[in-house]
Amino acid sequence: MHPLDEAIALKPGAPDEFTGATHPAYANMVGPFGGTTAAQLLQAAWLHPSRLGEPVALTVNFAAPVAEGEIRFLARVARTNRSTQHWIIEAHQSAEIVATATAVFALRRETWSAGEAVMPSGLPDPASLPRMPALGPIRWPQSYDMRFIEGAFPEAFDGQEQEHSRSCLWVRDEPGRPMDFASLAAMCDSFFPRIYVRRRRRTPIGTVSLTTFFHADSSLLAQVGTRHVLGVAKALNFRHGYFDQTGEIWSPEGQLLASTHQLVYFKD
Amino acid sequence: MHPLDEAIALKPGAPDEFTGATHPAYANMVGPFGGTTAAQLLQAAWLHPSRLGEPVALTVNFAAPVAEGEIRFLARVARTNRSTQHWIIEAHQSAEIVATATAVFALRRETWSAGEAVMPSGLPDPASLPRMPALGPIRWPQSYDMRFIEGAFPEAFDGQEQEHSRSCLWVRDEPGRPMDFASLAAMCDSFFPRIYVRRRRRTPIGTVSLTTFFHADSSLLAQVGTRHVLGVAKALNFRHGYFDQTGEIWSPEGQLLASTHQLVYFKD
Questions:
Q1: Is A4 exposed, middle or buried (0-12, 13-18, 19+ CB in 10 A)?
Q2: Is A77 helix (H, G, I), strand (E, B) or coil?
Q3: Which of A57, B199, B223, B257 has the smallest number of CB atoms closer than 10 Å to its CB?
Q4: Is the CB of residue A188 less than 8 Å from the CB of residue A210?
Q5: Are A88 and B88 in contact, with CB atoms under 8 Å apart?
Q6: Nearest residue to A103 (alpha-carbon basis) of A48, A64, A45
Q7: By CA distance, what is A114's nearest residue in B?
Q8: What is the pLDDT of residues A162-193, one digit of tens each?
Q9: What would the DSSP string read from start to end of B199-252?
Q10: Closest chain B residue to A268 measured between Cα atoms?
């Protein structure tokens, strides 16, 4: 079983309740990688017997550090319409909320479709780029195969402020795993904090809010299979302890799979 | 009293409960302008006796059409930390949920700060541009003073597909009103649907999810006063009944006040 599938394995309990746990393959410096928590919150709605359709929007608010161990998920249908469904999901540890989420699921239909943003072109193949080496003892980045074209995790925190914080990389689950909504939801949190790229200076950070829009349905995701996808990320603004981070995930064929936006706390 | 202040006037009831109503100055084709609903949801947390700090992130999911008349708001603190606070907010009509929201509030501090995105420059002054005329019987756009530089509401729905859906405009509340979080939250939903700009073709649309990150604190917002701010908007992708819409709101001095992202349903 793939570590991500182990990480999102939730056990149903009372109605609307599921139990999961943190997974060592997705451990962060303190507690779990937020992407896995996001995927677990989404999975609680995905596994719910009342689910309609597939996710189109997910917002996760990280309310407190998640401790290693068991997490209790509460997934409640706020409203079901003919083709859309609204969810409120909570993650609890020791009777306290550690994360909240809302999700919109929908039945998608064929319509006029068009891209407007365009995937960067003329990029080297993933196979021609080196895989990012391990980040010391931090485990979760090793659960991804990341091959940076621009804006890698700084080799040294030398305090040399950069002109921008843009990154561009090929990324996939490691070991390989067919792309699906859980993988995509987690991957949308896999961009390193923009402030590290911009400032090359260590500062405590923590994502407070993460929104992902899923532009792809499950059949488009299935076409990606286990190949690398292209991730691009940037920030718009850093001010008074918070910065934003915007990312896009593109299929190898240039289809936008997800766009994602997060607001991140930083200490100084 | 300004119409927006009337629209966001909520009456406290039982603990965590507030009652408000739709306002004729913000009527949309059917039901109210979503920006006002977003501002009301935010206001329920803002007015709550347990509130800590100021909003940094707001996500509103529009679950069903809001009917004209009374709306009951439920604002619940999910978690309060030393410098952040997490909210789950619901809007009810006739015992059904019509919208859900989550919000993150925070005490902001002075830190290293830097812009990364840059406001478009060399733009004409608002006073040198014509105000957008009324959109037939639809009331809410008349509660804004909008002066388009690019990507105006199409003069004709002639079906001429455009190369892109970008808009750039000066906008303020009409009548003038000092900028604050309520005004900014509502204004972030005031960009017309990107699909109208792109396709110049009518199709039923409806925002399902709207996320706004507030990059400004109340003192920076106060500096804006009643002047126009610059709005820019674009879409990344239109596919299978949903498109995204990204916007930025800039102060006249070029400070990013908010970035906003929504996912919008379209029929065909």
A1: buried
A2: strand
A3: B223
A4: yes
A5: yes
A6: A45
A7: B238
A8: 999 999 999 999 999 999 999 999 999 999 99
A9: H-----EEEEEEEEEE-S-HHHHHHHTTS-EEEEEE-SEEETTEEEEEEEEE-T
A10: B111
Q: What's the CA gap between B208 and B30, in Å, rounded?
A: 15
Cβ distance A117 to B237 less than 8 Å, yes or no, reads yes
Residue A17's contacts (CB-CB under 8 Å, 6 or more residues apart) are A72, A73, A74
Tell me: the pLDDT tens digits for B149-182?
Answer: 999 999 999 999 999 999 999 999 999 999 999 9
Q: Which of A89, A99, A90 is nearest to A34 (CA)?
A: A99
What number is the average pLDDT over the span B34-55?
98
Distance CA B219, CA B149 (A): 28
Q: What's the distance, CA A233 to chain centroid?
A: 12
Nearest to B147 by CA among B165, B130, B166, B123: B130
pLDDT above 90: percentage of residues in chain B: 98
* CB-CB contact of B245 with B191 (8 Å): yes
> What are the C-alpha distances in Å from B115 to residues A159, B19, B228, B257?
18, 39, 20, 11
First to last CA, chain A: 41
Q: Which of A47, A56, A46 has the alpha carbon at shortest distance from A84?
A: A56
Distances, alpha carbon B206 to alpha carbons A157, B62, B91, in Å:
46, 8, 17
Which of these, A101, A117, A114, lies nearest to A248 by C-alpha position?
A: A117
Mean residue pLDDT of chain B comes to 97
CB-based contact B211 A208, cutoff 8 Å: no
Cβ atoms B51, B45 nearer than 8 A: yes
In this structure, is the dihedral angle defined by the CA atoms of residues B135, B138, B142 and B144, taken in order, positive or negative? negative
Number of CB pairs, chain A paired with chain B, less than 8 A apart: 214
Instruction: Centre a 10 Å sphere on the Cβ of residue B213 and count the other Cβ atoms it contains.
Output: 30
Candidates B263, B264, B266, B268: best to mutate against A (most CBs of A within 10 A) is: B263
What is the enclosing helix (H) or strand (E) of A117? none
Tens-binned pLDDT, residue by residue, of chain A (268 aa): 999 999 999 999 999 999 999 999 999 988 999 999 999 999 999 999 999 999 999 999 999 999 999 999 999 999 999 999 999 999 999 999 999 999 999 999 999 999 999 999 999 999 999 999 998 889 999 999 999 999 999 999 999 999 999 999 999 999 999 999 999 999 999 999 999 999 999 999 999 999 999 999 999 999 999 999 999 999 999 999 999 999 999 999 999 999 999 999 999 9
**Of A22, A164, A163, residue with least CA distance to A93:** A22
Tell me the shortest Cα–Cα distance from B3 to chain A, in angstroms: 30
Residues 6+ apart with CB under 8 A from A263: A207, A208, A209, A242, A243, A244, A245, B56, B57, B104, B213
For residue B6, which amino acid is it?
Answer: E
Q: How far is the C-alpha of A204 from the C-alpha of A199, rounded, in Å?
A: 13
